[in-house]
Amino acid sequence: MNDDLAALSARIDRTNELLQRMLAEVAKTPSTHAIFVDAGYLYAAAGRLVSGTEDRRTFDLDTEGLIEALIDKARTIFADSRLLRVYWYDGARRRIHTAEQQAIAELPDVKVRLGNLNANNQQKGVDSLIRSDLESLARHRAISDAALIGGDEDLVSAVEAAQGYGARVHLWGIEAPEGRNQAEPLLWEVDSQRTFDLDFFKPYVSRRASAATRPTRDDVRFVGAQIAAKWLAARGREALVELLPGHPYLPGSVDQDLLVEAEGLLQYSLRGQADLRRALRDGFWEHLQTQY
């Protein structure tokens, strides 16, 4: 009898030891988050909020700047977590990338997923793509938190699928001038809600650029270097040391100051000009890195 009790006690001790080791390993595993963007919702809601229209043809959306701002916001909200990537869901004829969608796909840490556009320019298949990705990533423990930017009631099943595997889903919305632009069942289902207002989106949405002469990438890169020199002179090397670990991203406030000053110097809007925005940041970073 004593031998049996001793053996049982040894097995319990062994089990406890294994549990402690497992918990220690889990504690060392960093949390991971991803951002899921329903581009159809984003364009419509941001366009309505800033320019008064949902018609994409009448305004430019600085997708690169906005994506970086969303990444920056997620970095603040999920402070102890790392970004997996941004998933950008949009529609396209025969699922063939447009030039704008291709530019977005080339951004670091961004995955573009395309549904179809029907004859009325309505997205088809986007909700199922979001559900598939959310469910798969949650099932494989690739994410612990998902920031979902959308408003369609059809996304409820995607939220439920991810939550079923233990992921938390946080709904990010865009302020509506009147009423709501997100379905109530979706609001009820998520783990948390957050709404971004006019001030957040205003820097990234603008009416179509006029026929002003478009600057070259070299012109914009040079302006980025000029602004970097002024920035460094004003803030000093300590600020530079703090900024460098974030490369290639810039904090939202720095990025917006860079954009506004560059547009003033160039007398040209860079909103919606992904290649020129990239050249501007390249020039800014290249000058700073030569000074380090």
Descriptive report:
With 292 residues, this protein is an alpha/beta fold. The chain has helices at residues 2-28, 39-51, 63-77, 99-105, 126-139, 156-164, 184-189, 198-201, 217-243, 252-266, 274-290; strands at 31-38, 59-61, 81-92, 110-117, 123-124, 145-149, 168-174, 192-196, 205-207. Strand 7 (168-174), helix 7 (184-189) and strand 8 (192-196) form a beta-alpha-beta unit. The strands form 2 sheets. Strands 5-4-3-1-6-7-8 form a 7-stranded mixed sheet, sandwiched between helices. It has a two-stranded antiparallel sheet with strand order 2-9.
Strand order of the largest sheet: 5-4-3-1-6-7-8
Residue stretches low in confidence (pLDDT < 50, at least 5 long) are none
Which sheet architecture does the biggest sheet show? 7 strands, mixed
In DSSP terms, counting alpha (H) and pi (I) runs of 4 or more, how many helices? Answer: 11
What would the average pLDDT be, to the nearest integer?
A: 86
What is the terminal-to-terminal distance?
A: 73 Å
The tally of strands reads: 9
SSE order: HEHEHEHEEHEHEHEHEHHH
The value of Rg in angstroms is: 23 Å
Task: Estimate percent helicity.
Answer: 40-55%
Binned strand content: 15-25%
Structural class: alpha/beta
